[in-house]
Structure formats: C-alpha cells, structure tokens
C-alpha cells in the first residue's frame, strides 16, 4: 500500500507545480464550457511565472501530496481580505486544486485540505473558501463531501454583448 504524504512545496518544486497547474487548466478547458476559448496563448509561460512567485511568497502556501515518492496532487492557499464591513475580516482561500487521475478517490484532496485548514487556523483564520465551477461534477462532489457549502454565486457579463 503506497504511503500518502503531504509537504510544503518549495521553489525547487516549480516543474511539478506547473505541470499540475497546466493539467488543471486542460481539465477545465476540456469540460467547462467557454474555458477553452479563453485559454491565454502564453498560458504555459504565465503559469510558470505565477507559480514561481507563489512558491517564493512567505504569506501563502502551496502543498504537494505524494504517494510514496510520486507527486500526485497540489493545493495552494492564500489569505484573502473580506468585505471591510463583514466578518470574518480575513479567510483562507483554496486554489490550484488538482489530483492526478490515477490517484483520485484515495483521500488525497481530503489530506491536502486538512493540512491547509490547519495552516489557516495557525494564521488565526476561522473560515476557508474556494470557487468551483458548477459544470465540474468531480469538484462539486468533492467540496460537498468535505463540508464546503455554497454561499454565493459569481456572475459575469461580457461588455459589449447585449443582455
Ligand atoms: C476534485 C478532485 C481534486 C478530488 O480529489 P480526490 O483526491 O479524488 O478527492 P478525495 O479522494 O480526497 O475525495 C474526498 C471525498 O470527496 C468525494 N468525491 C471526490 N471525488 C468525487 C467524485 N468524482 N464523485 C463523487 N464524489 C467525489 C467523495 O465523497 C470522497 O470521499 P470518498 O472517496 O471516501 O467517498 C480531483 O477529482 C481532481 O483533481 N479533479 C480535477 C481537477 C478539479 O476539478 N479540481 C477542483 C477544482 S475546484
């Protein structure tokens, strides 16, 4: 039985973090209407630069999950400011959530989220949020199972298009 472990990603992990980030992008582009047309032509380069900045930023964390020595998942957590007039003042925000297909349904996400929530608690936070697209059934099912309730909708309108 392979051993599941989670550790903080460092700048040395940039290649695998970028690989997972781009796999997540491809996953969304294949399944979520409208995403493929919006993929930036220099997405790979931009993903690398962004991930490098994230891994070097002491105010946030990225974790990698491994099964034995094989990297199988990633999760990033930042601290976000809430509306100035609402509590909590700050909350943890989960992003870049990806588990390699062969490792799914073995508790990898569950473990990554537990580590992230512990880190958030140490930052004095008492709430964690994330975005998930409704056309991503795996994501919706996982967040439901992990106790994340729907609290708001994000709506957008392309300027110039008729309502
Ligand atoms: C969503 C995703 C991160 C889940 O990762 P995972 O490691 O397979 O999740 P876990 O094994 O920790 O699952 C935890 C619980 O969530 C639920 N769950 C997870 N995936 C599910 C699925 N496809 N269908 C139904 N329930 C699911 C289950 O209740 C599961 O517990 P169980 O297996 O004991 O029943 C993974 O499928 C993935 O990377 N998908 C592609 C990228 C993506 O959608 N990222 C999320 C963007 S918001």
Write the layout of secondary structure elements.
Layout: E1 4-8, H1 14-31, H2 35-38, H3 43-56, E2 61-67, E3 70-81, E4 90-99, H4 108-122, E5 128-129, H5 137-145
Parallel strand pairs: 4-5
Antiparallel strand pairs: 1-2, 2-3, 3-4
Helix pairs in contact: 1-3
Keywords:
binds coenzyme A; alpha+beta; 163 residues; 37% helix; 5 strands
Outline the structure in words.
With 163 residues, the chain is α+β, with helices and mostly antiparallel strands. It has helices spanning 14-31, 35-38, 43-56, 108-122, 137-145; strands at 4-8, 61-67, 70-81, 90-99, 128-129. Helix 1 crosses helix 3. The longest helix has 18 residues, at 14-31. The termini are far apart. Coenzyme A (COA) binds at residues 24, 27, 97-99, 104-110, 132, 136, 138-139, 141-142, 145.
Strand content: 15-25%
Q: How many helices does DSSP assign?
A: 5
Low-confidence stretches: none
Helix content: 25-40%
The gross shape turns out to be globular
Strand order of the largest sheet: 1-2-3-4-5
| Biggest sheet record | 5 strands, mixed
Mean pLDDT: 97
Can you count the beta strands? Answer: 5
SSE topology string: EHHHEEEHEH
| Span of the ends, CA to CA | 55 Å
Bound compounds, each kind once, are:
coenzyme A
Find the structural class using helix and strand composition: alpha+beta
In short:
Helix content is 37%, strand content 22%.
């Amino acid at each position: 039985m392979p051993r599941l472990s989670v550790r903080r990603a460092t700048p040395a992990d940039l290649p695998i973090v970028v690989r997972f980030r781009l796999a997540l992008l491809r996953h969304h582009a294949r399944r979520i209407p409208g995403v493929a047309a919006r993929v930036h032509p220099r997405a790979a380069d931009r993903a690398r630069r962004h991930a490098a900045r994230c891994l070097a930023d002491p105010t946030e964390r990225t974790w990698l999950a491994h099964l034995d020595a094989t990297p199988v998942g990633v999760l990033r957590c930042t601290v976000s400011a809430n509306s100035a007039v609402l509590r909590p003042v700050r909350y943890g925000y989960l992003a870049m959530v990806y588990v390699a297909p062969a490792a799914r349904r073995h508790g990898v996400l569950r473990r990554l989220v537990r580590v992230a929530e512990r880190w958030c608690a140490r930052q004095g936070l008492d709430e964690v949020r994330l975005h998930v697209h409704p056309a991503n059934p795996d994501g919706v099912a996982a967040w439901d199972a992990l106790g994340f309730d729907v609290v708001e909708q994000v709506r957008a309108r392309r300027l110039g298009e008729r309502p």
